Amino acid sequence: xxxxxxxxxxxxxxxxxxxxxxxxxxxxxxxxxxxxxxxxxxxxxxxxxxxxxxxxxxxxxxxxxxxxxxxxxxxxxxxxxxxxxxxxxxxxxxxxxxxxxxxxxxxxxxxxxxxxxxxxxxxxxxxxxxxxxxxxxxxxxxxxxxxxxxxxxxxxxxxxxxxxxxxxxxxxxxxxxxxxxxxxxxxxxxxxxxxxxxxxxxxxxxxxxxxxxxxxxxxxxxxxxxxxxxxxxxxxxxxxxxxxxxxxxxxxxxxxxxxxxxxxxxxxxxxxxxxxxxxxxxxxxxxxxxxxxxxxxxxxxxxxxxxxxxxxxxxxxxxxxxxxxxxxxxxxxxxxxxxxxxxxxxxxxxxxxxxxxxxxxxxxxxxxxxxxxxxxxxxxxxxxxxxxxxxxxxxxx
Length: 397
Hints:
Its EC number is 1.2.1.46. It comes from Parathalassolituus penaei. Belongs to the zinc-containing alcohol dehydrogenase family. This protein is an alpha/beta fold. Helices cover 27% and strands 21% of the residues. Strands 5, 6, 7, 8, 9, 16 and 17 form a 7-stranded mixed beta sheet that branches. A 6-stranded parallel beta sheet has the order 12-11-10-13-14-15, with helices on both faces. A two-stranded antiparallel sheet has the order 1-2. Helix 8 links the parallel strand 11 (213-218) and strand 12 (233-236).
């Protein structure tokens, strides 16, 4: 087994680099991690959540190995791993979960109580998420393997569909979760805020759930064009005019049944003020255009510390929301990390049986590990793509 490893490292605001990092071991601090496995990373994706850190909009420390979207092949198993074996191809939920605590037993794996001393919930390679080493690397260690990992039924089939299956680690379940918590079902009208990869995954998920009309709003036309490529209606939020008027042109109504926020805390104002950051604007729009009694799914990231925020309140996550409107309309708000394991097996089946073409929907582009810094730069520039890193040239081969 190779004892070398390389990974994508956050160096400071606006800078990442591919560097040599430690080869993973089956240890947790000073003790053995007998329930863990070591993976050869087959694919690992760049996420919009990573971009928040790289832009300097979190308290992420320099030297953090990035990456929480991981698909890999097991090359070593701990002594206590019973149901997986060397050679298995697996999807890694970005949530790290022990499987033993109250929340895990209730299916709330995004807020496991035992894997992060700072707060409930953990993730690989992410600020304030337990200090776990990220997976934008050649090799990575995954704890609680029997509980966390989703094994693909056939290795050859997995490689054949890897561009789709790689999205099971985060954005497809996250987009799907946003739609489920927004109440999307057959015949629904749905507004998706944001046409980045999670927004596009949410739009495709809404279609899978039977929505009658899926409308995607964004400020980047190429991303809106990508949404239109698989049957969505779109609204360019840089153009002047009330969003209600634009909805009426599409639906004949000024409200939607369901709203999904796939933007988060770096949102900007609409129209001629699109250059101005307004972190609560999406949430306020949600209350304005969601029907009375409707549900609002919020998979978009909001943080408790944002050093680059527009004001002191926003720096600690205090946003100016018109919450009284949401109360008056009896809205339901659903926040937090997606509990990936709640959905990933069903979504794997949807991929394997060709019920969803998620790689096409989010426009996957496979790049090498050495191309990761350029991938970050292009993604930050608004590229209508989902960058998937292929550290061992397994996909391109």
